[in-house]
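To close the chapter, one final illustration. This time we ask the reader to focus less on the individual chains and more on the assembly as a whole: which components sit near each other, and how the overall shape emerges from the parts.
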Amino acid sequence: MSTVEHTIKLYNSLKGQKEEFKPLHPGYVGMYVCGPTVYSDVHLGNCRTFTSFDIIYRYLMHIGYKVRYVRNITDVGHLTDEGEDRMSKGARVAQLEPMEVAQKYTVGFHDMMRIFNTLPPSIEPRATGHIPEQIKMVQDIMERGYGYERNGSVYFNVRKFDQENPGVYGNLSGRVLDDLLAESREGLKSQGEKDNPVDFAIWMKARSGDIMVWESPWSVGFPGWHLECSAMSTKYLGQTFDIHGGGNDLKFPHHENEIAQNLGSCGCTPANYWLHANMLLLNGKKMSKSDGNTITPMELFTGESPFVTKGYSPMVVKFFMLMAHYRSTLDITDEALQAAEKGFRRLMETNSILQKMDPHTADFDGSESDTDRTILRLIDEAYAGMDDDFNTAIALATLNELGSYVHKLANQQLDHTEVAPWVLERLKTIFNAFIFDIFGLNDEADGGDDGTVDGLMQLILDIRAAARAQKDWGTSDKIRDGLAAVGIAVKDGKEGTNWTKG
RNA sequence: GAGCAUGUAGUCAAAUGGACAAAAGGCGCCAGAUUGCAGAUCUGGAGGUGCGGGUUCGAUUCCUGCCAUGCUCUCCA
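The assembled structure is written out below.
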């Protein structure tokens, strides 16, 4: 039984267009997202990808889906440009056990995901914990004739796969196999033991010095990089599932090879919908360690970077990400972050004003005003934005428009009777839902306070109000300036005096 | 070198084959209201579809060339 009333449209990379989302089982969604390779600190770009999919996860749940969200940890098999396992290399460099490296960066990754207030996935499987499943998949692929062994390593026969499944390989990334073959023809001489340069390893025989190795029917070795996602998505979501996500840069070859492996092992397409989050830029350029155009999440938070004039809190960074659509590149600039900081604070304050409002039931005449209709229309627009490929930019813009009604009410520029009690209640519910449940923001300003500060502030502001009543501006301003010095902003309004921290 | 994307005010960014009041929204800027002042808030305003060609009654949107930027591939597991 499905209770989901929303029709979601999402951009399917497989088709290159938006289409209506139809889950395999009504009311349920299976979603797999390629997680990090834990051999170094998490990259800011990864934070965007996982934040984007966290919001997709949250939204699907919000509208009533039961979602199983699987996001893996890759801790073996992903090789560096020099052909060394990334985990092993990390271990060698730091003189640690590979599992120590994996543990260190997995913990760091989890910490960062918590800092960004993302929900943990339903299942977070590790590649090293699924070696038997991966070996089984290699066997299945070989049985179906798409794998061949060379000196203890096993390769996936891309050309044969393409001949028997025309149009599949390259479809996701918009590549033509013949072009790939032609391009790599020059490299024929150095293709090693592969029959064809486009073939890829699904099992690698260990070389001397490799430390992360397992027994297999072919050799002591380790699984190929792309295999773990195929094996683990199959294990936890089934041979065919709804959504597969990841960063845009994984489209080729990683996701293309994943599809080939799944089809090659069981003859079935893995995911119906492929979603790809786009890249983060820094000052209009790609982030790159080699030319110094890069910033880590921690540097962004602390402000210890030449690219920012100050630190920006995790929620500000997250809010900044929400201002763009997940499928667009997003350019990080100091100015844009400052804008996001103000926008975020404003939205949170608007919400806190809204949540304190009482509906005016006493003098409500039961009619529906133009304001009511506008508010309801804007709420629908916010949902319509999210329904249309999770467009957080539209949802956010709509919340801002709704916010101006909140302030008009608070300033008595709009009469309370203009908003029906039930409309106000709905507005309050929707604001909380979008900000906290869907976007996963949190109010950093009121964290960890037991009410002492509230009490103190009340006392101080009472004293100041008394001074102001006497037109004692000296005392009034001394209090305001003193509080400003410790980071508390005092704002006088029609309804009395407000204060905010930060 | 190849494939695929993207290019929207000062800035980040959304949307759209048209007309409407009107190409969202955030930040910045200007003016007014409010205020003891400041802030916040409200109202109003200035400012934009990279360059050229094509399709169309009409193009920011579709096609195409150029330029710029990005991703992937070009060596390999």
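Chain A has three domains: 9-277, 289-438, 452-501. Residues 273 and 365 of chain A are 49 Å apart (CA to CA). With these observations in hand, you are ready for the problems at the end of the chapter.
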